[in-house]
Specification:
Elements: H1 12-20, H2 29-37, E1 42-45, H3 52-65, E2 70-74, H4 78-90, E3 95-98, H5 104-115, E4 121-124, H6 126-129, H7 132-143, E5 147-152, H8 173-178, E6 184-188, H9 193-202, E7 209-212, E8 220-226, H10 230-241, E9 247-250, H11 254-266, E10 271-274, H12 280-292, E11 297-300, E12 315-318, H13 325-332, E13 342-348, H14 350-362, H15 367-385, H16 390-397, H17 409-412, E14 417-419, H18 421-438, H19 444-452, H20 457-461, H21 478-490, E15 494-497, E16 503-506, H22 510-514, E17 521-523
Parallel strand pairs: 1-6, 1-7, 2-4, 2-5, 3-4, 5-6, 8-13, 9-11, 9-12, 10-11, 12-13
Antiparallel strand pairs: 14-17, 15-16
The structure holds adenosine-5'-diphosphate and zinc ion.
Amino acid sequence: ALQAPATLSSDPQDILQEVFGYDAFRGEQQDIVEHVCSGGDALVLMPTGGGKSLCYQVPAIALQRAGQGISIVVSPLIALMHDQVGALHEAGVAAEFLNSTLDWNQTLAIEGRMQRGEITMVYVAPERLSTPRFLELLDGLRDSGRLALFAIDEAHCVSQWGHDFRPEYRSLSILHERYPTVPRIALTATADTLTRADIVERLRLEDARQFVSSFDRPNIRYAIVEKKDPTQQLLRFIQNEHPEDAGVVYCQSRKRVEEMAQTLNDAGLNALPYHAGLDASVRQRHQDRFLREDGIVMCATIAFGMGIDKPDVRFVAHIDMPKNIEGYYQETGRAGRDGQPADAWMAYGLADVVNQRRMIDESPAGEEFKQAMRGKLDALLALAEATDCRRVRLLGYFGEPSQPCGNCDNCLNPPEVWDGTDAARKLLSTIYWIRKQQGIGFGAGQIMDIVRGKPTEKVLQHGHDKLSTYGLCAELSEAQLRGVLRQLIAIGALQVDAAAFNTLVLTDASRAVLKGEVPVQLRASISSPTPRASRKER
Ligand code: ADP
Ligand code: ZN
């Protein structure tokens, strides 16, 4: 049965109650809806679970009821479109999708209904939107004044700085050029300042009002541990804190996904692998089981997660370090969408950093891009190395000031810190003198052997036992020195040159540390691994 526009209220508040069954808008939803309904462009930054969908669905319904026609929703994932359209159907909204799962006749039928004004919202993939056929359809709608709104979901996909770049999104600049009078709303759950600027530029949203919600997810408890025996650390974490819960374990490679799923299964957990190398049908089956059954642990690459709306994921673990804070935030954000307590747990080590850096250095990208990626990796490293509130650091990265949260590992269990300034200066000056005297660089192992005074063959061969810093850090363990090196990398006072056998290279920021102007604070746990008290009681 068709809706009769004249008799239905186009008031957003009425639509919220009558169509969606909610009493009140949340956060900035009302402002956003009103802005869009009155014809303004908007860029909405709201965390996962914040309620982005209503920000365009309510306007789409209101505009349709007010006789302004159809809204076009650009969405990158077929699964996501299907879920959304299904939910809208249940709410009695005339929504459809156009994508590769439809045959020709189905497509024709929907196009016909669009032209006859029988559809309120149509979801399309970005690649469909820029086809001549679809543009012609849009032209017709525009010419008869029945093109109400463009909504661009997951807008960060337009940015190559983001973690999920989709080249098809680039063509969306056509919306502004071809339909300058049709309002646009772009939405994303993640965008640091660089990505945000990129979205604005690429989508031509210079005049859009920006709605930036708090990115805090107070129910998520962040914890980052130093890698020692990562598999055992992860097992202990799951068995102690989430023995029967659903969770996701992110791994860097397909091989690692498989190994991890096996290990967890062997330990009696209910784990499944998920990565792009698996058959589509296997992936689908595992995803379905994860959504439907209780207590499944999904071991996955980052191929898993986008568009998966499971409210009761109780933990997200990273056994390998992600590429940057945006990725970390996005992936950990899949925990606790129901607002109940959830854990974001990550293990990291120097090898991860070296690995990620090598991937950046060896990528075919341009130097500017690589530089940006290195900066982002460093920011994540600084978060991992932080001895103060993780949440303050995390939100700070997104430009949001906050107070210590009381719900992260560092707040709950303030780490003991020790002053590594002196060791840092000795390490840096060793690197400096070798490069100056011998014109070559060395990796972390050699530098640490020198300051610890270990007369290895390689140390003697290069005459490094003659350096003035030889043996000056004899009292420190390798683990402690590794911690100092990591911290130096985190604060940008040291770089790893992956193109030259991972040799250590000084930077502009090294000088201040060498001069003792910048203190280097480290977690004492690096030297004395004391087991954390169990949090079972919480
Ligand atoms: P996002 O896309 O930002 O991750 P969703 O749009 O999927 O978030 O919304 C997350 C959940 O919050 C959904 O279950 C949605 O129905 C619910 N929700 C959104 N807005 C409201 C509201 N104003 N009142 C009650 N529930 C809401
Ligand atoms: Zn905190």
